[in-house]
Every structure is written in C-alpha cells, then in structure tokens.
Amino acid sequence: MKAHKTAASGRSIWKVIDQVLTWGPRPLVMGVLNVTPDSFSDGGRFLEPSVAIDHALKMVAEGANVIDVGGESSRPGAEPVEVSEELQRVIPVMEALARAIAVPLSVDTTKAEVARQAVRSGASIINDISALRWDPAMRRVAAETGAGVILMHMQGAPKTMQRAPEYADVVREVKNFLISSLREATKSGIEPERILLDPGIGFGKNLQQNLTLLAELGSLAEIGRPLCVGVSRKSFIGAVTDAALPDRLPGSLAAAVVAMINGARLLRVHDVPETVAALNMATAILEHRVEKEVS
Length: 295
Hints:
The protein contains ten helices and ten strands. It has 295 residues and is α/β, with parallel strands linked by helices. It has a domain at 28-226: Dihydropteroate synthase-like (TIM Barrel, Alpha-Beta Barrel). The chain has an eight-stranded parallel sheet with strand order 8-7-6-5-4-3-10-9. Strands 1-2 form a two-stranded antiparallel sheet. Helix 2 links the parallel strand 4 (66-70) and strand 5 (105-108).
C-alpha cells in the first residue's frame, strides 16, 4: 500500500524508551484516560482506579495504539493540583496498566516528579502541555528516562488561556514556538526522534485560530517531527456545529480526518472505535486515489 500524497506522507519513527513506534499512512490513535474529577468531557467518570483500568482495556481492544493517563485537568479555567494528589490519582492506574496491556502508556503531566514516578511505574511517554517549561526539572527527567515526549503550544495557562487569546499570525507564532521548544529539548539531551509536536488546539486559541491551525497543519509538519493533534469533543467543535458536549462526535471525527490529511500522525481522542473507523475509511479512499493516479 502506497502512502497518499499529503503532508503526512512518509514514515517517521518515535522512540519511547525501549520501543520504536512507526507510522504508515494512517495516524496512531491515543486514547484519553482522565483520572480526574473535573476534566471537561469525562471528569469523575474514571476517578476510581478499577473503572479507569477497565476503560483503558476497552480502548485498547477498540484499537487505541497509546493510552494517555492524566491526573490534572487542563480544561479552560482549571485549577492546578498538588503533586501528591496527582501522584495518588495516576500511579496506581499506571502500575496496573503496565501489567495489563502491551501498548505504550503516556503520562499527561507538567510536573517532573509525576513524570519520573510514572515512568518508573510503566509509562514510556511524557505528554507535557507546557512543553517542558513549567518545571525546571522536567527536561532532565525526560532526558534521563529516555521517554518519548510530546511538546505542546499553549498561550497562557489553563486557568486563563481562553481569556481573549491574541496572535498577529497564529500559524507563524505556533510554528516558531514549536521550533524553539524542539531546539531547547534537544539541547537538554533529548533525542529528536523521541519528540512529537502538538499545536495545542483549544489551548489559548479562539475559534478562528483553531480552524486556521487545522487548515495549515502542513506548515507545522515542515518542522520535521511528527504532529500530535487533539480535537476530540472540544468547544470549537460545539461552536461550529452548535452541538452540546454529548453530541460532538460527528464534528470530532470530521476534524480528526482533516487533521490526518493535513499532517497529524498521532490523534488524541476520547471516542476510540469511531475515530479508528473514520481514519480507516478516509485512508482507504485516499490510498485508492493515489493508486489510481499512478496506475
């Protein structure tokens, strides 16, 4: 099967401790597991460890390639939590999942101590919405553990990020930030092959800024590292479709497919089987088009 001719063409690698993840024409799918009481979409549903573990197993069975475990909400307006509380939420789940599933585990955190203990408990990826900036020890933890890293752009912090975000040129500014974050991470001893970049859809962006970034993902893919994109159930989808949170699946799937076509290589989602089916369908059509063109 030939890769379709988009910004996502070609194979890349992502080193995550002792594994090497690769891509074909279809992105990998990261299943979201929020072990929090206040996440915007599913806060409180998976706070109990046994329920969280069952949900992770279900997502893997449905086709998730990575499970992302987060113990602190990053929804707009969210308050930070103490390290001890985040550890209490994350580590028991991480330890149990490391024994139960084979797919890589990611820890969604901005705190070096949480990242360190999560990796010790079985995580192989650090997903940091601050791009390793907020905790001075985070770069060292990432470098020393050899974990895969996701560096995300965000204007402001979750508590304030949606208070009238401003950009002169959102694509150029996000691109420059990601280039700088990649440079700083590699200077700290993190191999480029361990790094993914995330434009931070919904993190300090308004509706038009989010739509512009999704339309221009190809420009960000030019940086040279694979892109992680999270659009699932976010408020900009509700703004476009006039859908309440429980009804945002169609818009989420459409945005995920467009993100794939425009260069995303990892999609962070809540609805795993539906996203996998949509990506498979879109890939089959795009592959058929390319094969017809070259035949």
